[in-house]
Write a structure and sequence with these properties.
mainly alpha; 6 helices; elongated
Length: 90
């Protein structure tokens, strides 16, 4: 289904996804601001955990450390950027 067909289907059903879209765009802007604040390692960890759903074990293999170290690094990143914590969950 094309995006035009999707919109037409929404309109016919009387659905309005604009509020959801606005929320997603707002969240995307928040993530963009967050990425400007974090270190490259924090960004790697957060992207892999929150966006790609990597496990501690998988991340530990990439970083050549123990899974417990990965968890601590993620905890520290979340604390450091506490105001953005909702975006960092994953």
């Amino acid at each position: 289904m094309s995006w035009e067909e999707h919109i037409q289907t929404e309109e016919k059903a009387g659905e309005n996804f604009a509020p959801e879209l606005i929320d997603r765009l707002d969240q995307a802007a928040q993530v963009e601001r967050l990425w400007q604040k974090v270190t490259p390692e924090e960004r790697f960890l957060l992207e892999c955990r929150c966006l790609l759903d990597y496990s501690d074990k998988e991340l530990a293999k990439y970083l050549n450390c123990k899974p417990a170290s990965v968890r601590m690094k993620l905890t520290r990143a979340r604390r450091k950027h506490g105001a953005d914590e909702a975006l960092l969950q994953g």
